[in-house]
Design brief:
Rossmann fold, six-stranded mixed beta sheet, four-stranded antiparallel beta sheet, 10 helices
Length: about 270
């Protein structure tokens, strides 16, 4: 298995274990480092532990043991206010968008600032002008500024996902997590969202960790691929290194047509050389 070794990683995970009750561990002594400005995809069959890993990072799921460190802050032992403050630093983009349909695009976007605002501002929706300006800037960047006053339930899937991305960025996060961000989108829109995430990582000097089912998208839009099987990392390398042998190890027993597609490493090297 190829391994990346990097200094000054922003996210460091060491010996992470997650088990539910007395059941077999879902994550098994997992180790991972993700540095700034990198776009890393996580692939694997259903049940590999991909979503659980992301949810452990932002503590939506409680780790059983191990260490998760973001920019020198240990996340696993935080509680109460300290945990809420830490969560502000972790942006999350969801497969199902997680928007409030009856609210406008601007109101959904501003919900990313709730951790920074006094309760009265949040309840009365009296957002500071600097937050409104930042929201418009980000919405313009992703092409939805003209929908600012439109209700969320009037948007297409791709537009809704863009709202989700901007909401996460309004937190001014130190890392962006994306859980199957293209799973419910058509191929053209999926491409646009993946291109957007890759560009934002560079523009905002932000590490992006994407749990993705489409292997071809992982190869095309991310710099590094982490392959998981039964709660362990069994591949960690560049897209060109994800050959048929590695795919067979990651997706053992899964039919080829259900693996999200996989072009040969030879073809990818040819593309990279153009």
């Amino acid at each position: 298995m190829a391994h990346f070794t990097r200094g000054n990683a922003m996210l460091r995970i060491k010996e992470l274990v997650k088990r539910y009750g007395d059941e077999k561990a879902v994550l098994k002594n997992l180790n991972l480092e993700v540095p700034g400005e990198s776009v890393v995809s996580i692939i694997g069959a259903s049940g590999a532990g991909k979503s659980t890993l992301l949810r452990c990072i932002n503590r939506l799921v409680e780790p059983s043991s191990g260490s998760i460190e973001l920019n020198g802050t240990e996340l696993t032992n935080l509680e109460g206010k300290s945990l809420r403050l830490a969560r502000r630093r972790i942006g999350m983009v969801f497969q199902g968008f997680n928007l409030i349909d009856r609210l406008t695009v601007m109101e959904n976007v501003q919900s990313g600032r709730l951790g920074y605002l006094p309760a009265w501002r949040a309840m009365t929706r009296k957002y500071p002008q600097e937050d409104i300006d930042r929201a418009f800037h980000l919405m313009e960047r992703v092409g939805i500024a003209h929908y600012a006053n439109k209700r969320a339930d009037e948007l297409s899937g791709g537009e809704r996902q863009r709202v989700g991305v901007v909401r996460a960025l309004m937190q001014e996060p130190e890392i962006l997590l994306a859980d199957e961000p293209t799973a419910s989108l058509d191929p053209k829109t999926s491409k646009q969202i993946m291109e957007l995430l890759r560009a934002l990582a560079s523009e905002l000097h932000l590490p992006v960790l994407i749990n993705i089912h489409n292997v071809n998208e992982a190869k095309e839009y991310t710099q590094r691929i982490v392959g998981m099987r039964f709660g362990r990392i069994i591949f960690d390398g560049e897209p060109v290194d994800l050959d048929n042998d590695a795919m067979d190890e990651i997706y053992a027993g899964v039919p080829a047509e259900e693996r999200g597609g996989a072009e040969s490493s030879t073809h990818l090297r040819e593309v990279a050389a153009r």
